[in-house]
Structure formats: structure tokens, C-alpha cells
């Protein structure tokens, strides 16, 4: 009887342990933020949300949209002159003075690393003539991205009842930004030296986003704070090719909240190979070639972040002709394969020819025509 009791205890302990392990990885994080979200960047899949559609003041996380707008419509080599209006802008600063000139790219680093409100105004005035016109450009671009519950009236995030966004929109905007290599480079920069005209030394800019030092794989993006908005942070990290974005708005412990949410997000996905380099994906006929067809092979590997239950949401689309004219060169691009998530493209690779095919000589073409005619006659009249 004692032996059975001991076995029973061991059995119960096993039952108790196994669910605990499972629940530990799937339990939703408890965060202090009033609104929060975890999003995978390439697919836009939401892994966690809390009041994610609630309109809130975004504070300086606004500058993510400022950066995207400047990258899309501005010229990085332009020299931006600081107006008196820009130099007198309230809040965090790049310490610009009236008449000071910096290249656009240096201004953008100043905006994202030290949250220079003055730099956002200088860039806006240079590109659009006024902050108001540039803010309209920001709003229009945000809506085009899919962040339709956002409205911007300024470039810095200073409080305004008509200036708002949501956790979802900020994640959506940031995911769009990560499609741009220069965006990724700027928001992941820990330290940058930019000129300081009139001084005997340069500006030493250190990124205010502590996540770059606190979290393994962190690669962005922007802090924010006003009394109205509370403490806000859009953070991001890339591990094994999985790019996650976390937004916390009005958080009492924004660093801890963000770490919890990133940790949770990475437990929900794994990188799954979909296509391997040199996979044969299509056969194409060759007209007037010494060989009748070629194979189209993938030029690159494609892997996608995938949850266990979502395999059926992914599909592939091949965009390539059914016939090509000779000559064909080995490695020549002749099409594209796209990986789709819910019918939206999330990854792609070129399709290239697996070998070269020379064009037939004149006599080869002539004999091909004769042989084709003879074959037609035999099949239809013999």
C-alpha cells in the first residue's frame, strides 16, 4: 500500500509539472502599460494586445512617423538651415541655433537618438515649408500604411488633442519602417557623432533607448514621454530572422513591460523554411533553343516566422512565363516566387535559369521547321 502511495505521489507530481511548463510559455504577460501590443513585422501578425486600438497621445514615438516621412520624401544630402522657430522649439533638443546648418541625415540621427524636437521642426520646414504641412504629409502616409486611427498635427509629439495614435497603429507604422534599411540603421544606432558648426567639438549622440543595451537582439526604436501621454516606448528586436515590435503606452515600468512582451513574442513563433535555394519550382519551354526547356530554381532561401497553428495561412505564388525565347543564360532572372500570408506578400526570391540554352543555328531552325511540317503531315494524313 505504501508503494502505491509513493507511485501515486510521483504520478501527481508529473501531472502538475507538465502543465506548468506548458503554461509558462503561453501565459499572457502582466504589464503596467495602459495600452500595448506585440507584432511580428513581416506578417503584421498580432501576438499580444491590450487596448491596442485605443486612441492615446504618442509623445515622442511620433518621431517614428517623422523619420519615415523624411526618408520617403526628403533628400538625405540636403543641407537643412535652422530657423528661429525651430531653434526655439520646446522640449528635448539637439541644441540647434538659428541659422545653423546640418545635412538632412544628421538631423534624422538627432531626431531619433536624442529626440530633438528642434530638429523635427527644422526638417519639416525645409521639406514642406511648415510643421503643419509636414504633419499632414505624415498623416496621409500613416493612413496609406494602414494606420488609419492616427492623426498628426506636429512632428515631435508635443501634446495636442488632435494629435493621437494607437498601439496598433504605431506597431504598423514601425513594421513598415523596417522594410527600409536606412530606417533600421538609424533606429538601431547606439552612438553617433554629428557636426556642431561653430564649436570646437562635434555632437556626441547616445541613443536614449536603453533597450539597445538591455535586450539581446534589440534593434530600435523610440522612447517618449509627456505628462499627458505617460511613459511610452516602441521597442523592437530581431532573433533568428524574426523581427518583433512592441509598443507600450502610458506604462509605469516601460522597460520591464517591453522585455516581458518581447520574451513572450519570441516564444510564440519559430522560423520555418519554406523554400530552399536551388529548389526547382517550375519548368519553362524554350523557343528556338538547342534544348527544349529549362528549370526555374530559387535564387535564395526563404524562411518565415510561423505559429504552430498557422501553416494554412501561408501560400506561394510563382510569377514566371510559360515560354521563353533562346538564348538563355544560366542564372538569368526569369521570374519571382512570393510567399504570402493571408494573401499579403511577406517574402520573395528571384527565380533563375538552371542552365544556359543557346539559340539554334539557321540550319537548325530550318530543319526544325521542316521536321515540324513532316510530323504534322504524318500525324494528320498518313
UniProtKB/TrEMBL annotation:
SMART domains: PBP5_C
Record's protein name: serine-type D-Ala-D-Ala carboxypeptidase
SUPFAM superfamilies named among the record's database cross-references: beta-lactamase/transpeptidase-like
Residues binding substrate: 222
Top-tier EC class: hydrolase
The enzyme's E.C. designation: 3.4.16.4
Active site feature: 60 (acyl-ester intermediate), 63 (proton acceptor), 115
Keywords on record: Carboxypeptidase, Cell shape, Cell wall biogenesis/degradation, Hydrolase, Peptidoglycan synthesis, Protease, Signal
Pathway: Cell wall biogenesis; peptidoglycan biosynthesis
Pfam families: PBP5_C (PF07943), Peptidase_S11 (PF00768)
Annotated signal sequence range: 1-24
One GO molecular-function entry: serine-type D-Ala-D-Ala carboxypeptidase activity
Protein family: Belongs to the peptidase S11 family.
Entry-linked InterPro entries: Beta-lactam/transpept-like (IPR012338), Peptidase_S11 (IPR018044), Peptidase_S11_C (IPR012907), Peptidase_S11_C_sf (IPR037167), Peptidase_S11_N (IPR001967)
Domain Peptidase S11 D-Ala-D-Ala carboxypeptidase A C-terminal, chain residue ranges per copy: 269-359
GO BP annotation list: cell wall organization; peptidoglycan biosynthetic process; proteolysis; regulation of cell shape
Protein source organism: Sporomusa malonica
Catalyzed reaction equations: Preferential cleavage: (Ac)2-L-Lys-D-Ala-|-D-Ala. Also transpeptidation of peptidyl-alanyl moieties that are N-acyl substituents of D-alanine
Amino acid at each position: 500500500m505504501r508503494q502505491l502511495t509513493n507511485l501515486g505521489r510521483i504520478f501527481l507530481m508529473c501531472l502538475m509539472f507538465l502543465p506548468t511548463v506548458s503554461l509558462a510559455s503561453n501565459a499572457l504577460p502582466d504589464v503596467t502599460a495602459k495600452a500595448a501590443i506585440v507584432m511580428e513585422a513581416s506578417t503584421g501578425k498580432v501576438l499580444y494586445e491590450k487596448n491596442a486600438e485605443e486612441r492615446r497621445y504618442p509623445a515622442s514615438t511620433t518621431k517614428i512617423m517623422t523619420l519615415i516621412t523624411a526618408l520617403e520624401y526628403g533628400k538625405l544630402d540636403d543641407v537643412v538651415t535652422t530657423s528661429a522657430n525651430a531653434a526655439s522649439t520646446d522640449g528635448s533638443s539637439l541644441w540647434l541655433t538659428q541659422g545653423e546648418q546640418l545635412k538632412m541625415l544628421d538631423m534624422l540621427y538627432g531626431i531619433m537618438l536624442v529626440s530633438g524636437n528642434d530638429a523635427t521642426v527644422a526638417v519639416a520646414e525645409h521639406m514642406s515649408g511648415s510643421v503643419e504641412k509636414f504633419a499632414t504629409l505624415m498623416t496621409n502616409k500613416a493612413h496609406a500604411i494602414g494606420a488609419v486611427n492616427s492623426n498628426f498635427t506636429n512632428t515631435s509629439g508635443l501634446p495636442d488633442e488632435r494629435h493621437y495614435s494607437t498601439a496598433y497603429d504605431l506597431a504598423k507604422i514601425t513594421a513598415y519602417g523596417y522594410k527600409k534599411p536606412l530606417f533600421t540603421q538609424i533606429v538601431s544606432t547606439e552612438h553617433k557623432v554629428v557636426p556642431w558648426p561653430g564649436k570646437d567639438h562635434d555632437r556626441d549622440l547616445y541613443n536614449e533607448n536603453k533597450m539597445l543595451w538591455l535586450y539581446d537582439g534589440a534593434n530600435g526604436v523610440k522612447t517618449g514621454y509627456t505628462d499627458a501621454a505617460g511613459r511610452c516606448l516602441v521597442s523592437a528586436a530581431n532573433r533568428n530572422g524574426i523581427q518583433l515590435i512592441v509598443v507600450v503606452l502610458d506604462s509605469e515600468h516601460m522597460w520591464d513591460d517591453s522585455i516581458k512582451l518581447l520574451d513572450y513574442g519570441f516564444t510564440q513563433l519559430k522560423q520555418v523554411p519554406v523554400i530552399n535555394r536551388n529548389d526547382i519550382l517550375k519548368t519553362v519551354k524554350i523557343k528556338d533553343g538547342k534544348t527544349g526547356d529549362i528549370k526555374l530554381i530559387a535564387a535564395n532561401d526563404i524562411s518565415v516566422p510561423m505559429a504552430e497553428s498557422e501553416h494554412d495561412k501561408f501560400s506561394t505564388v510563382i510569377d514566371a512565363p510559360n515560354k521563353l525565347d533562346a538564348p538563355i543564360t544560366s542564372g538569368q532572372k526569369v521570374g519571382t516566387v512570393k510567399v504570402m500570408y493571408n494573401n499579403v506578400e511577406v517574402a520573395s526570391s528571384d527565380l533563375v535559369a538552371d542552365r544556359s540554352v543557346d539559340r539554334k543555328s539557321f540550319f537548325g531552325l530550318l530543319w526544325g521547321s521542316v521536321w515540324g511540317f513532316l510530323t504534322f503531315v504524318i500525324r494528320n494524313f498518313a
